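Q&A FORM
Asked by: J.P.
Topic: structure of Hemoglobin linker chain

PROVIDED:
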Amino acid sequence: SARSKGGRMRDELLAACALLLVVAQAAVPNRVIRSTGHHNDDKCVCVWGGHGGGGHGGRPPWESEEMLEGRLDGQEARLDKVQAKLDALQAKADDKLVKAQGLMKKFKTVEARVHHLEGSECAIDEFECGGIGHMCVHEMHMCDGTPDCYNEADEDPHNCVNLMPAGAVFEGHIHNEDHCTRRQPHKLRTVVTSVTTKSYFPSVPKVKVSVLLYYNSDHEERVDTLNGHGTWDYAHHRLLVHALEADGLGLYCKFDGVNEDSCHAHIFNENTHKDCMSFTMHRLDHH
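REPLIED BY: S.T.
REPLY: Here is the structure written out as tokens.
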């Protein structure tokens, strides 16, 4: 009959509403969901309580996911702003660090020049340990694995670095008057071709070099290459090249202990040990 048919529809609707209650309650546990409790109603009224608003005007469960996504988007935006501020602070810190390192390098350069002008109390073949004791050790004891200075400065990694390893290329332009070389070069380039360190004599690495002399002859620029050998001097941070020709002229280039990309070069007479010309050489290789 029509009455029994309508009752079945109502029962099916109530069953569906009850299933909806179970599913919705599982999805949103902090929501309060109930039916009207009127058996004569053909409608199931779900009331959404909690923080999202109550009564019949509450939000359905699928909108709560949208709210959660919105909150997550908001948190990500805040995190992006915080990260941007941190990046800006890091950039400022890096900039200040670079400036501080530059100032420290300038200070050490001036300090090295003052030390050079004041001179050392040690002999020419000795290393000054530094500090207040003015202790000196022979250059042959430098970087041999055994500390001889009271402060172990002779084994300090900063002092035990060869600044002219194999492959190093330095070049300098000569503007001073030349009273000692026969070619009178206007440019000189030094290329380190090999470095050999003996395990039983580590304090004196053996170095082989090629010295390129650029000079003018008959209105043309010429280049002569002289091959020679020498040593790296840890005690004085310098490359020493023995006489390249019969004229007895050698070359040494001394670093100031701060700037590793330039050295003060001197051409000297190996017989008299006197300098006859000086200039600055700059690194061309990528150290």
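FOLLOW-UP: Residues 28-39, 46-57 have pLDDT under 50 and may be disordered.
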